[in-house]
Amino acid sequence: MGEFANLTSIAFNDGDLETAKSHLHYMSEKLNGASEIEFEYIDVYYVEHLFWKSNQKGIDLGWPLVPENLKQLYLSYHGKKPEPVRR
Known about the structure:
Elements: H1 2-14, H2 17-32, H3 36-47, H4 56-62, H5 68-78
Helix pairs in contact: 1-2, 1-4
């Protein structure tokens, strides 16, 4: 799940919005019908890692694409919109 989040973030950075949207749509739909353990994996291992590999361009392009159910999980954990990770 973490690597899938990284691939989504890289798609944001590359401007490959069709790929990013397909990833987000898939995870959003899985979340809607998730069992308890599936919910945990999507929340902890996908959503919490989303944007870790994103630059500012990726964040600017990607954040508006995040479905509301995933966005709420992200904000619940991080407490704010994504920002680039300083390395």
